[in-house]
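SEQUENCE-TO-STRUCTURE ENTRY
===========================
What this section holds: a protein sequence and its matching fold, both as plain text.
Question of interest: how does this chain fold, as expressed in C-alpha cells?
***
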Amino acid sequence: MKRVCALCGRETDVLIEGLCPDCYRKTHPLARVKRDFVGIVRCPMCGSINYRGRWVRDEKVIKKLILESIEPLGRVSGMEIEDLSLRPSMNMVKVTLRGSVHDLIPEYTEPISVSVRYTEELCPRCRDLALERERAVLQVRSLIPLSDSIKNLVLSIIRNEVSRSAERGSIVDINEVSSGFDVKFTDQGLARAVAYKIHSTIPSRISESQSVLRGRGERTVTKLSISLILVPINRGSVVMVMGKPYYVLGYGQGTFKAVDLKDGIHTRLKITDMVKMGVTVPNYDVECVERGSARVLRVIVEGNEYIVSNAC
C-alpha cells in the first residue's frame, strides 16, 4: 500500500515518522558541528600543533582536531576530509560522512562543513630558542684531561638525549672549554635528563642549584645550574690522590675500589673526596709478570715499582 510523505506529498513504500526516506534525511542530518569554529595553532618554525595545551609534532593532529568537532547524530561509519590546505585566516573544510540516520535507510554519504581558524605562532620551545632564552645550564668538567673518546661519548649522550626528548626542549648553545663543556638548554627537565645520563655512564659527581630570574609565587621563572664533575678513570688506571699512588680495581655507587700501592692495602675512594682532594694521572706502566709460582701485577709509577697480588 502506497503512503504519502507529509513533507513533500510524494507516495512512498517506506514511511518513517510520516516522512519519506529523502525528506527524513533532509530533516535529520548525520552529524552536527559542535562549535562555531575549530582553532588550529601551528608553530611556523618546527611545525608543532597546539593540541589541548600541548605542542605535538604530528600533522595528523590537525585532522584529529577537525574530526573531534563533529558530533554524530546518526550511525556514522566513516569520515573523510576532502581538502586540508589551510591558510592563516578562516577556512571552510569539507568533510564527507558515511552512515545512516535510520535502520530503514541504506548507508549513504553526506557532506558537512567545518569552519577552521588557522593561525601560526612560535611554540614556547622555539620562542625560547629564537630569543636564545636559556632555562638551564649544564657545566661538565673533568678532574683529569679528557681524552677524545670521552669527549665524543659526552657529545653522543647529549645528542641522543636531546633527539629523544625533542618535544620538551632543545639546546640553545654548547661550548667546549679547556676542561669540559658548557651546555645551555631551553628546558630544565631536558638538562636534568642529559646530566643524569652522563652521570650514570661516566664516574662523576653531580650537584644542582636554582636561581630566580623574575616573578614571584606561581609566576616565578627560575634558571637551573647543574655541575657535573667527571672522574673518567676505570679498572687498570693509576691515579695520584694526596700524593699517593692508587691502582684502580673497579667502580660502583660513587666509589672506586683501589689498591694503595705504597701500603698494598685495598681501600675505597669516594668521588666526593677525590673532587675535594684532587686527582692526577702520573706516568705509569702496568704488566702481569711471573714471580715464583704466581702471576702478579707489576706497576711502575714515575720510576717506582710496586707489586699487586691477585690482580692479573
User: Anything to note?
Assistant: The chain has three domains: 3-121, 126-230, 238-308. The CA atoms of residues 283 and 302 lie 6 Å apart. The chain is about 20% helix and 45% strand. The radius of gyration is 35 Å.
